[in-house]
Design a protein that fits this description.
With 221 residues, the protein is mostly helical. It contains eight helices and no strands.
């Protein structure tokens, strides 16, 4: 089993700030004294920034990767600080669930398939669309992991409408049940890490399914 958080995620998302605590305090004081109180403002003078200039498939890929990385980061934080577990588990699992949904949609389209218009938030519907897409790409569908799809099906059962980890009650006020009530945290994070690894490599495997020389090598081998 790989490490709990894959090295690429560590490098991109968990690297320490490159400024000292005094420098951070100075920046915060400058922020407090700035008359501009907006939440959102363009970055100036080389300040750290993020960009939203890309759209389409590029952005959708960044979205599912980002939510999945955020889920892993939160799960790792829960392991390090158990007192935060009962709070952080909700955004961790919501991020996981949303990441899987968007990732399936993205890979279906990347593979040349189509997401049914009535799929909505249904992971089961997306799994079926993904399988159909895979069958069209490769008769053996060798890049499909039944193990991973079965784990996604578990999420579909627990959270069929993508609300279980967002809200505590239904619209009528009845509680949203989560079963089982206690989850094995180590098993959860190891499985999510494996799911992340699988999704990270899935587009490359789809590319190989279109590579005639590679497919010929498999047939001759």
């Amino acid at each position: 089993m790989r490490q709990m958080l894959k090295p690429s995620v560590k490098a991109r998302f968990i690297e320490r700030m490159s400024i000292t605590e005094d420098q951070e305090d100075a920046l915060y004081k400058a922020f407090l004294s700035n008359p501009d109180q907006r939440l959102i403002a363009p970055a100036e003078n080389g300040a750290p920034s993020v960009e939203f200039r890309f759209g389409g498939g590029w952005r959708e890929c960044r979205i599912w990767e980002g939510y999945l990385d955020a889920s892993l980061i939160l799960l790792r934080q829960i392991l390090e600080q158990r007192g935060l577990a009962n709070n952080l588990i909700f955004p961790a699992l919501f991020n996981l669930r949303h990441a899987v949904e968007v990732a399936l949609k993205w890979h279906i389209q990347y593979g040349g398939g189509a997401v049914s218009k009535d799929a909505g938030h249904s992971l089961n519907a997306l799994i079926e669309s993904f399988r159909r897409t895979a069958d069209d790409l490769d008769d053996e569908a060798s890049y499909i992991s039944d193990y991973m799809l079965n784990r996604i099906s578990e999420l579909a059962i627990i959270d069929p409408r993508s609300i279980t980890f967002r809200y505590s009650t239904e619209l009528d006020g009845s509680p949203i049940e989560i079963a089982p009530e206690r989850w094995d945290l180590h098993r959860l994070i190891f499985t999510v890490d494996g799911l992340s690894f699988w999704l990270d490599n899935l587009s490359s495997k789809i590319d190989l399914s279109r590579d005639e020389r590679y497919q010929a090598y498999l047939r001759d081998g």
